[in-house]
Amino acid sequence: MNLTVQVLLKRYRCGDVRALAQLITLCENGANHFTEDFVEEKEHHVVGITGSPGVGKSSIIDELALRYVDRGERVAVVAIDPSSPFTHGAFLGDRVRMRKLSTKGVVIRSMASRGNGGGLAPAITSVLKLLSGFGFSKIFLETVGIGQAEVDVANVADTVILVLSPGIGDEIQLFKTGVMEIADIYVVNKADLEESKKLRTLVEQTVNQGKTEGWKRRIVGTSCVEWCGFEELEEAINEHLQYLKESGELLARRTRRRKFALISRFLRYVRETVEKVAVEDLTLEGLKKAICDDIIFGRENKKDENIYQGGR
Hints:
By secondary structure, the protein is an alpha/beta fold. The chain has three domains: 1-39, no CATH class; 41-247, P-loop containing nucleotide triphosphate hydrolases (Rossmann fold), CATH 3.40.50; 248-295. Helix content is 47%, strand content 12%. A seven-stranded parallel β-sheet has the order 3-2-4-1-5-6-7, with helices on both faces. The longest helix has 28 residues, at 249-276. The protein starts with a helix and ends with a helix.
């Protein structure tokens, strides 16, 4: 293992937040092998918050995180922002909308999606492991503003919350498959608006149809104007965590996360390999040869060493 990473891990284990930030940056740059063998997860709960753009995801996290901080939990927030399809850069502006948390010791990390589909960032599973190993017991994960098919949050979160809001077309989403099927808790935000009552009725008619066993999915109305509904939402989150532990579903979801991490890493590696292959070798056999050469000659490890040393 690279000496730089050894030093960072030593500082990380001593509670150095800057070392944590630097290790997360390494993961974002593709050098995340060290998290597999040298980072140990601690007890934690990942709450995924997803929904269309503008439904109030950041405001809801802002309020929920404060509640858990007040109860003595260590809280971290990971917010995924969409990236430019050309430069892979991102504005990373979610921290601007979570102003309350900045004075409460909550770690907020914005990450660029870097063109990754599914509403998440490529390094998300490694980052979650780092945050867990650092001692954060409650980790909120905010996806980018998603569409109907972006459901990767279900592969990494223990509890998935889908935020809906009246007036932006979410009524139509109820009649489609995809993101509506992955949620454990549905939040109808902007409950201070009259239109939210109709949306909640539609959600109630759609959710839990034909479901006779397992977790009965909750529906909660919230308002970030009147600051209501958050006590009920917190209670629903706690009840779902208790259900996961008692039913054994928590272990199943953590296993799914590990599988997702391996698959994502492999697909990313294949994509990067294809991008490096010469035009004349853009065949299945050419790709096989490129991958085998990388493995035999250890080029993947050399790439990691360059990243550790600050290069590319």
